Amino acid sequence: MKKIYMDYNATSPLHPEVLDAMLPFLKDNFGNPSSIHWAGRCVTKYVEEAREKVANLLNAHPTEIVFTGGGSESDNFAIKGVAYALKDKGTHIITTQVEHPAVLNTCAYLEKIGYEVTYLPVDREGMIDLDELKSSITDRTILLSVMYANNETGNILPIKEIGEITSDRGILFHTDAVQAVGKTAIDSKDLKVDLLSMSGHKLYGPKGVGSLYVKKGTMLIPLIHGGHQERNRRAGTENTPGIVGLGKACEVGKRDVEYQSRYLANLRDTLHKRIIDKLDHVILNGHPTERLPNTLNLNFEFVEGEALLISLDLEGVAVSTGSACSSGSVGPSHVLTAMGVPSETAQGSIRFSLGKDNTEEDIEHVIGVLPNIVTRLRSMSPLYPGKGSE
Q: Does 175 lie in the same domain as 234?
């Protein structure tokens, strides 16, 4: 059976160039970068070269890059680090209702210990109102945390405009760019962000490694205390193979981002068009244009999403009903709920997230099996008004 992977927003396979870059550090170059002898010195330079590659991808200075254990740690570090550092100045944080759980649950934790959090709503297309954002800022606001691109819908939020607002008001701005890095060009300086999270395994790098861009001069209390690593910002022996892999993934990502964006947008749009040509009662979740080139989130009315996912899996097609980090959740997506999608409708949604290894043949295979699956599942629904019409 042909196997087709269309869940790249959950994780991506290791790029061959990344694997080749990592292999020496899993065998011969095993030294601790903090050691001053030859074994340590021979790997330290590769860690710093990787830091330069991450910085280059984001148009940042290498000293502004802190290596972490992944996107969730980077989000926690940014939000808690600022909250702790600036608690004497204020205790108000602004975020959105559609953030990744790494942001939402961090904010919920801070609320329990005395911080105030405003969760901005979104419209039916998943976009925030900038005027509402401005009116939410108070003299106690210390941080805005708004994701660059949504992991479920692919929506790209107005980060540059938000950066202008926070810059003018003297408020720190963090963006969770885990889904965006490698899929669209990102310039930290142009965006006027103070903190930016990213994760290796979302851009064909290894799992268990990420980074946090920290603009020079930004006050931040470390999450992890111990040794002096990462210029005293994140203690613990460096994950050298992972860091080298992340660096190579960023180098490849910067090189290929324009071509990949065009290629994936074409595949995505072809998939979307073929699906709506074959099936009725299919609704796009998210903004029609302001979204990642690889992401297509569709609601198949009168179908239960998990049944559709399992049926596609039996045909060798791997997709998602939303966020991988929420796959154990029983209820509807918090993102779609925030967008005003009714619960029963939201549970019929599927996310197709494409990657570099997908082809037009993959699209044809999906179109070959999907309509029959949807028709079969709808035939079992007493609510479907068009039985036998497809």
A: yes
325 is catalytic: yes
The H-assigned helical ranges of the chain are 16-22, 38-58, 71-85, 101-112, 130-136, 159-169, 188-191, 229-232, 240-278, 305-314, 334-338, 343-346, 360-378
Where among 253, 275, 298 does a domain terminate?
Answer: 253
What confidence score (pLDDT) does residue 320 get? Answer: 95
Question: Does the pLDDT of residue 245 top 80, yes or no?
Answer: yes
218 & 145 share domain: yes
Shared-domain flag, residues 246 and 335: no
- Distance (Å, whole) CA 326 – CA 344: 18
Q: Give yes or no for residue 149 having a pLDDT over 90.
A: yes
Confirm if 69 and 207 have CB atoms less than 8 A apart. no
* 79/135 same-domain check: yes
Is residue 3 within 8 Å of residue 214, measured between CB atoms? no
pLDDT at 51 over 90: yes
pLDDT of 388: 47
Tokens standing for residue 52: 């330069």
Q: What residues make up the domain containing 366?
A: 4-11+256-378
Q: In the chain, how many domains are there? A: 2
The pTM of this model reads 0.95
Which of the four pLDDT bands, split at 50, 70 and 90, describes residue 322?
A: low
Last residue of a domain, one of 205, 228, 253: 253
Same domain membership, residue 274 and residue 146:
no
pLDDT higher than 50, residue 390:
no
Same domain membership, residue 278 and residue 324: yes
Q: How far apart are CA 130 and CA 155, in angstroms?
A: 15
C-beta neighbour count of 130 within 10 angstroms: 15
**Residue 347 sits in a domain of what CATH number?**
3.90.1150.10
Mean pLDDT of 45-53: 97
Query: Please, which pLDDT band fits residue 383 given cuts at 50, 70 and 90?
Result: confident
Q: What is the 3-state secondary structure (H, E, C) of 127-140?
A: CCCHHHHHHHCCCC
**Catalytic residue chosen out of the listed positions 42, 107, 250, 325:** 325
Of 197, 145, 184, which is closest to residue 166 (Cα–Cα)? 145
